[in-house]
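A quick aside before the break. I want you to see a complete sequence-to-structure record at least once, exactly as it would be stored in a machine-readable document. Don't worry about memorizing anything.
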Amino acid sequence: MFALMIILYCFIKKAYKNTKDIVINKLKINAQSSNQHHPKLNILQLSDLHLENISISPNELYEKLKDEPIDLIALTGDFLDRKRTIPKLIPYLKTINQLQPKYGIYAVLGNHDYVLRSKNLKVLIETLEKYNCKVLQNETDIISVQGTRVNIIGIDDFSTKRSNIEAAYKGITFGTNLVLTHDPNIVLNMKNYHFDYLLAGHFHGGQICYPKAYHLVKMGKLARMNIIKGFHMRDGKPFYISEGLGQTGVNIRVGSRPEMTLHELTLEIANREVVKVI
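That is the input. The structure line, written in tokens, reads:
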């Protein structure tokens, strides 16, 4: 029994240490079909901070990212799920503002954020907005990158049945479509909606994989297809699932690593007139 307890202690200690083993993944999207005249958008994606269980401090986050070229920051949901954690978010928001993204900071909400009741959820959204985060709930914001229109499309959380794709795409007639959402299962419902790139999180790369993340089967079809992290294509369109920066439940990881992701998105110089195909 004593030996078993020692083994369990060592396992948990190593699993906790894994939460500090943060990787910065870097991807280049559309680079193979581009030329030097096509503008690029450098996007930092931070997902699933789960501030109740996070092993990186705001200062450590800044030190890891301060020398990276960042044009836009995308926060893809699950900041926290307790009212008392909201003040803990503020130092992280101050830090990402220090990174001075040229085109701003955009955020969508995740299923854990919606654990907060209406009043506390409002406080969370107001806190994000106070620190220059544009919170998109089934809506679009538009930026211009070297004369190229980019539609930042925020689709609300799919797992809690708050997604409204049609509303999110309302009014879009042309441009590059960058979709931000939390639950990547939404891509299974977007065959008729064009996007050039979609960023999501939600699965934590399994967080605890033994050797597979069997516990994710209840989290939708993508998880049952073992599409739980990294770069993928659906209906010819690219999307990325972050393993997230924090942890949920317990602050351990087995077979997964927390990540921050830098996406270099090459923009097509074209006025795409159709975003929905009937």
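Two observations worth writing down. The radius of gyration is 19 Å. Residues 21 and 257 are 6 Å apart (CA to CA). We'll return to this after the break.
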